[in-house]
Design brief:
Elements: E1 18-21, H1 28-37, E2 47-50, H2 54-58, E3 62-64, E4 70-71, E5 76-77, H3 88-91, H4 103-120, H5 125-147, H6 165-170, H7 184-210, H8 213-222, H9 224-227, E6 233-235, H10 243-253, E7 264-268, E8 274-278, H11 301-308, E9 313-316, E10 322-325, H12 328-340
Parallel strand pairs: 1-2, 1-3, 3-5, 6-7
Antiparallel strand pairs: 4-5, 7-8, 8-10, 9-10
Helix pairs in contact: 1-4, 1-7, 4-5, 5-7, 8-10
């Protein structure tokens, strides 16, 4: 395989930075690692050298996913060596994630905050810290796990997901039976662009849409006792992505004497009616802490109002995770009665 730079420049100088990675079949982790590095001012114009030749790698300013060395002081970030078992948690005990790191995770750990700031323009340290955790848990960790062959499940999955970013990067490699001469270095650039565009898209969402919702959730949690005496119902003034924030906000707002444990969230839908949603046990879970009562599930309109004794009922989903009412008072009454239902009957 060629060890020529992926990005050839007409006026290369001795001062040109070089990012080294392996040649041959490429993967999502080194494509993402290289993309992230090239968002930084010091590596923006760097050449990417794809090779396994140790002499050529020694000339590189930074090397990812090849070389059998992890040494941040020398900017060497490989994870294939037998003794390597680092995770975000092993590198920083304040982080909870224990998935073995790939080259993407290693580069993200050491440069991620700067990468996020460079792409988003954000400079607030607290916001950057929140975005760093969110992007690892919801983007980079998946790349780490796939590259290291770590399954999401202990048993066989019920269905196969074949559209992940790692799978799509993998399909950019030259086909084994391609008639035309393959140009893997050019295809690697496309792989960087693919995973980079998805990384940037995810970051833009979390920065511009997800993060601003946090203050709304904080205010709603703090106002919960003005909504219901139990402190287990909160009201959102607007529809926003609240689920991903609630667990961490509850933990921050809890005290030894008073743990915050929201069961239902009320908000107005796009048609002006009110929804009552059961809080899931985790952000991505389909299991609720306390579903709406079983006798209400799958019932609608007047039949539901008569059954529940609450005027203005619109529906309760068959799974019990959400219901609706024409008015705020009706939605609050649904939450109030749902809280009173015995656990065995909910």
């Amino acid at each position: 395989m060629s060890s020529e730079p992926v990005e050839k420049r007409a006026h290369t100088t001795a001062a040109t930075m070089k990012i080294g990675t392996h040649d041959g079949h490429f993967h999502c982790d080194e494509a993402l690692a290289c993309y992230m590095l090239k968002q930084l001012p010091e590596y923006k114009d760097a050449e990417i050298v794809r090779t396994r030749n140790p002499d050529l790698l020694a000339e590189c300013d930074i090397v990812v996913d090849v070389g059998a060395t992890f040494d941040p002081a020398k900017h060497r970030y490989d994870h294939h060596q037998r003794e390597f078992d680092h995770t975000m948690n092993s590198l920083n005990p304040d982080y909870k994630w224990v998935t073995k790191l790939s080259s993407a995770g290693l580069v993200y750990f050491h440069f991620g905050t700067k990468v996020i700031s460079a792409i988003s323009g954000e400079t607030d340290e607290q916001k950057l810290a929140i975005l760093f955790k969110q992007m690892y848990e919801n983007f980079v960790e998946e790349v780490d796990a796939v590259d290291n062959g770590i399954s999401q499940y202990s048993g066989s999955p019920l269905y196969r997901v074949s559209t992940t970013v790692s799978a799509r990067v993998g399909r950019l490699n030259p086909a084994w039976n391609a008639e035309a001469a393959a140009k893997p270095d050019e295809l690697f650039v496309k792989a960087m662009e693919l995973v980079g565009s998805e990384f940037t898209s995810a970051l833009t969402f979390y920065h511009k849409s997800w993060l601003p919702a946090r203050s709304i959730v904080v205010d709603a949690v703090r106002d919960r006792l003005n909504v219901h005496k139990s402190g287990e119902v909160m009201v959102l003034p607007t529809v926003c992505p609240w689920k991903a924030h609630l667990l961490s906000v509850e933990e921050e707002e809890s005290t030894e004497e008073n743990a915050v444990n929201i069961k239902y969230v009320l908000f107005r839908d796009f048609h002006g009616k009110w929804r009552v949603m059961a809080v899931p046990i985790s952000h991505n879970s389909f299991t609720s802490r306390k579903p709406l009562p079983k006798p209400w599930r799958g019932i609608r309109n007047d039949v539901l109002s008569e059954l529940s004794g609450i005027e203005g009922c619109v529906f309760v989903h068959a799974a019990g995770f959400i219901g609706g009412n024409n008015t705020f008072e009706g939605a609050l009454a649904m939450a109030d009665k749902a809280l009173a239902f015995p656990e065995a009957d909910d």
